[in-house]
Queue: 2 jobs
Job 1
Amino acid sequence: MGMNRREFLGRSAWLALSLSLLRVAPADAGEAAAAGASNAKVAYTDWQDLYRKRWKWDRVVYSSHGRANCMSACSWSVFVKDGLVWREEQNAVYEAAEGVPDFNPRGCQKGGCYSHLMYEPSRLVHPIRRVGERGSGRWKRISWDEALGAIADAMIDAAVENGTGTIVYDNGTTNLDFGPDHTGEVELFRLLASTNIESWAGVGDMPHGATQTWGMYNCEGTSDDWFKSDFIIVWVGNPSYTRIPDMHFMHEARYRGAKLVVIAPDYNATAVHADYWINPRIGSDAALALAMAQVIVSEKLYREDYVREQTDLSILVREDTRRYLRAGDVSASGGKDVLQFWDEASNRLADVPGCEGEGSTSIALGGIRPALGGRREVTLADGKKVGVRPLFDFLREHLDSGYTPEKAAAVTGVSPSTIRRIARELAKAGSAMIFSSWGACKHYHSDLVQRAEILLMALTANQGKSGGGLRVAAWWEVDGQRSLWDRGAGPDWMSASEKLKLLYKTKVGGGLSWREFEELAVRSKEFSGNVPTMSFLYAHAGYSEIWDEPEFHDPGQPRPTAAYMKEAVEKGWIPVRPLPGIEPRVYYFTGMNPLRRWPAPQIAEKVLWPKLKMIASVNTKMSTSSLMGDIVLPAAGWYERDLLKYTEAYLPYFVLNQKVVEPLGESKSEWEITGLLAKKIQERAKARGISKVRDAAMKAEVDLSTVYDHWTANGKWSESDPRAALDHILKNNKVTGNKGYDEAAKTGMLPVVHEEGGPHALWALGTRYQPGKTVFPHERFVKEKEAWPTFSGRQQFLIEHPWFVENGESLPVHKEPPKAGGDHPLLLTGGHTRWSIHAIWRDSSLMLQLQRGEPAVFVSVKDAKARKVGDGDRVRVFSDLGAFEAVAKVAPAVSPGQVIIYHAWEPYQFKDWKGQQEPVAAPFKPLHLAGDYGQIHYRGIYSGPGHHPRAQRVDFVRA
């Protein structure tokens, strides 16, 4: 019989759903029965019955997608029928702040089809163990007891052999939430004192330019604050793909007259809505930003008062050393790190308030009026006379000599008139912001670009202003997590007097200053097992083989990368765990997918994998990395457990992820999996007569025979009751008013009611939250005059660290992308895909229908023609390291010289399992190993060597 396309697709979709229902059992008696679900056989005769009964359900529960690493926290109404999740709809109960549009509705096509994805064939439902070679695909279903026993014994063996540092825990950044699942994992591996891979910089998400300039990187507010901007620049970003629930605020800002500028080499989905699309040559963004700064400075469009107070541009710099002038330079009794102004009010030198050497926590100038120009001569303590000038003078010369619009045009391909026009409109806007999020951090010289972008925001007084400033991302604090386990007055490594001081400061003295907090955080790294991803791969996975290659780095780099790494490790700036000379033996990763994400994963397979005696993973579905492992543990789906979705500052709500149905098969929540593993480790340690072993830093002992007791807080928590732990977190979370689980369940979320925005390892916004108002970053520094946690106490554009000086980066400059991957003519770029959150939806049968159904690379018409490649042809993309094959999409929106592949395709979706990272070298920039200078240092989730996979050198040919 005849059938049109719509009928065919409809019947196919319902046939697939019918088949999935045949293999999925209804929920067990218990919750499902209590909710009124029936286990009776349902008489479905054909797909039409399914369609009719789609509009009937047993109950509706508010939930979300808890541990998916999605920036947007969206609440969904989940419809349940016969113990199965039937479908979901957006939960639109968000209230609007004063004078701006509301957040409703929030969601995207991925969240709208999770009810389909959770029942797809790649879903894991039983523990399994490899019975063939790694990667052979031969698996055996085993019991939970056998699986956990094997993992526990492997961990105990490794700990006895060479300390718990040989146990490596990794949850990437994919597997995060604000609830008990994530917290429980972190606590177990803290108790084990294992090696914990710290992945913020390791996934390429660390805005190094922000930490170098501000001493912090959290710089965002609520997305409704974008509506208040008059001039929005989206710089190396594509929020139409990556901020789907929030993008409407940018469009709505245009309705009220704002300009939208998109700066990107390709004409992407955000650019089509822009007032201006500017497409500089790939990797030339710093030159463009500095040329805009040159226009603003030369035409006196900058805001003098802001520059004097909020930046280091008013601080005096010596002409002979190009370093800040210090009080100790001019007086034997002066402080060695007390920086100096020239005070025009008194016509003499003045100490810089709030700088590290001066020590106060305020940058308020009082009666001081720092000069922004002019040469003075000062007499040093030894009698020598030297010339000094404000840094602003040096910056002006720097910009005039190298970054006029005409000179920048030769580098960027953007005309001088366009550069001047954008710079002037930016400077004259009432408020201007730059949206430059995680994707912009993935370039080798992204720190230079960000330093230049922040310079633009500082010159125009937009940082710390509603609708203004550089925006990357920020988080709300979730202080309730810390209350699950009693930490006492402070960390174990602190002395009694230090703990008393900390207790006083936090309880009575108004809290730690930004600088005090950072000093404690830096000290803590000596006693933890945290290790940056890239230094772990460099030391233990064979990546020194490619990252030491001089041709893959800046050609002006004066010393080998190996020399920088050696110095950083010897000076304690960067940790290596396990310690040098000790090999990793157990790799336990949850939710993340290292062989998909790591650069050139073939190197890790060759060098790291043979060292590992046990590779165990926890996931909701099978991944490439799990396929290359030994034991895979099935995690419950997001609608099958209680979670608290991690919430970035975009949304002033904490979104609850309620358990809607029972876990599929034998899958369990990660809270339960972690608790059972802790119990098994303790049980096996006692049975084997093993108790104390050495920790990752080899500085203390760990008692394996008490791990479970500590994890449960001596019986306070049970692995079988994650809801109790989540309720405790919420009731101890002052940010949401200390309201518990039941209150959150009423609407699916809790509004933020209190946030100081003070110093924290991750959450700091730098702004106090006011209910009913939009939030923007860094208000405390600008309005309340708090000192920035930098060496100068200000937004700092001069970096005196010897490594920066010898590499010519003491001031922001433009540098070309290095030839990482070899001397090839094209640059491989990418971005976060529209059709998946990382790899989670990459094999979704629904999402694959909305694209080409397989990995695709986007190439320019010019480059395709030169290689005789047509649309739909298979191509081989290659570098000196490796290659992958994919279908070519020939697109006029792609710049010549550019090859685009959006991220997160599973390697198993490519020919021979050779995924898109095979040709990617992604060397870290050695300057990101630097330490011991103010804000230039490493600690967890702050800085460290970064993963830079963008602008890699490649070529392509027909396959």
Job 2
Amino acid sequence: MAASSATPHTTGCVYNAPMPQDMLGNTVGLDANGALARNLKHLAESRQFTLGPMPVQDFLDEFLPESGHGGRGGMLSSEAAFSAVPTRGESSADIYRPLIAALNKMSSKQSRCPGFVFEDVASRSAHPRRLGHMKPHICCFVQEHAEEALRADYTSRVELGFAEFFLQVQPDPRHDFYHDPAPTASPVARAAHQLGQDYDPEDDVSLHVLEGGKALGQHIAYVQEVFTRQFRIFFFTVSLAGPCARFFRWDRSGCIVSESFDIHERPDLLCEFLWRFSQASVISRGHDTTVDRALPEHEVLFRTLVEEETSLQLGLIGEALARAIAQHYEPGKVMIVHVPAEGETLRHRRFLISRPVMSAFSLAGRGTRGYWAVDLTCRAVVFLKDTWRSRSLEELEGDTLRYLNDADVRNVPFLVAHGDVLAATHATCRTEYQGTKTDEYTSQVWVCRVGDKAARVTRRRHYRLVLGPVGYDLRFFQGADELLHATYDVFIAMVDALRKDSRVHRDISAGNVILARERGSEPNSRRKGYLIDWETSSHVDDAGLALKPGRAGTWEFMSIKMLSDVHGSERQTIEDDMESLLYVVLYCALLWLPHNVSDRELSETYTRFFEFSTVHRGVAVGGDAKASNAYNRRYTRDIVFDCSAMKAWLDTIMDYCSPRRGAEKGKWTPDHVDAFWSHFLNTQALDRHGRVAHRLERNQPQETVSSDSDSDSDDSDETSTEAHQSTGGSVEHSPTTVHPRDPSSVRERPPPQIPTNPGSDARQPAAAGRAAKRTTPPAAGADSASRPKRTRVIQPKTSRRQPPDPSTLRRSQRIQEQQSRSKAEEPVPAPRPSGRQAKTVASGTRLGQFSRTARGRGRGRGAASRK
């Protein structure tokens, strides 16, 4: 067979997956104005997760072992393979253009990389020298994909959706950011050696280090984009500084970089990499084969059911509905995802997905992506969370949800399916899971330091969680009425979890509350609030203190106590979660309800109250404005809302939380707050609509605590509560998730954009706590004749939760008894605030009661109403 006709393995691969988009149809996370900041952030973070330099032959043998089938008759000789590539050039093109010719060289029976082709991608850009528009210099494609990628418009970036690996080139050997130790260095000397070079403005040599650092930051940005555009377990890249090459292997734990080698002196090493890559299976090339292309009939089913669900949740028709559907669906891009089914047999449940509503834009970390999905078992719309969890987690998020469901905790998602992702859909045993490998090499003798601290690499495993219902982010509430009713629903969930499962959430945030309208409801009825993302929750001891110490949650909404925790020893309580919920309401009210605060004053208040942080002994601390407001209401006393009842609620809850008068002392308890809140909702008139979008006016980025590599800051995905990486001038606001193990990392973030009202032309819905982005209107769906029959959601038949630990039951009982004894008297509802007194119908229920809906959903029957 001629070398040019060799066909690489591509069965089971999905390429060029949809990415989330913003309100204008732009791909989220790729704003050109923020490219430099993103690249510098990538470079700084890489110091924490890069291991190297690994001996080149070891790299090849470990990560691309010889396939063992077939001979090497189709392999071109490596002798003088790259002799035409110059040692240095005036530009990168002087290096990579002759390199492309060498890579693509073939005869009738031999080639460098059979079945693959190398293309100049860097020149395929409308602005090839401008950050944010640049593309890798050379991409390796399967032949058929190269043709599709090269047909795309220069403004698109689909090349990274099809790339098998890429090569990035610097024209000068001095532009290599890494500096290998001497070959004769002792193990002690290697351990102390700084692999990554530091920039010194007083040193002329550092100008080259600066160029190398900028190039590496851009290199990492390309890798991160590949992980977002493809379904990847890992990814290979090659960098060259002049003729000096390095191999890279990237996964969600970090990166392993090889020693440098000269392609003039050792052309055999690069040729060996190319040959082994061409013989590798799709799994060995890093693809996730548990995602498949859907059939045409599956795409019709997906679009039809997503249209029904979107219409139910938003009450839209026509073009407005089409725009909302585009948040979840891209025509021709529907995939089948396999999620492990619980039980002894090696079965999978299949779900249809298309465009994610969120995707993490950091490389090392959980890499969380969230989708509206269609369950092929029962034809219902659910939410699918795809993430890379830490192997150190004591309890999977799906297990936590099952415990909460079995305990009849109200207003939390119901579990559909979950599990660690098998290595392949045909895996022969449960022990073959998709996991990271970078973490396996941290103790190797060749590992050098890359930064001031030793690398911190987290062991991760691929995990999927499917839950319901789907809904829209709390930040898209319609008015004060929906805001206070939905957050009261969340309050019920918090207290239920404490009393029935001895658990505190620890990450109460605006992004962790979704609004969902139940099937059978009136089109414009009030939506229900659900508390999601229980991954960082913790059981409590007899005193109500979380068993897990330290921070976990979202900086903007943390309690004063947790923000001032310098030593990481504080343990959260239900009172901390209640305080966070107060800040969630205040945050939403300030940004999206009409009031008398100017945009300038609002911006200053927002920055000081929600974002400010400083570093004390290497640890980020904050909460000064919150503490000041607790003492004298400095930031809230003069606010006047158009809805007077909104201010009355805030004033009362703040007085309960931080009493200034004796009458409110001792009322910061679940029972007292519930007594006031439920009575308030039953007696006060709250605006159903009237939502506005205030503008935050800030010229300079603000320093905030960011998530570390364990969070999806996005994540953040980075996850947690983050929706998207905030970059550039006009971006969506993404509160900052703080991971308990590294609360002190600081980053800069530009001012947030205030999302407008869902249903408008600038709609920006979100699903299951994640902010979704508008796309262009999709193609028309199936007609009514082809509309599939909708069936009720059926929970998977799994074993019921094992009998709870007796100590957990005793703690729950003691907590309730202690709270009962601590009440000096039966809570008395606060006096009615001034203003309109028209009675409204309340959706909340007292904590001691169960609504019919909650009782059914908690037992795994909550979807019965979704016919």
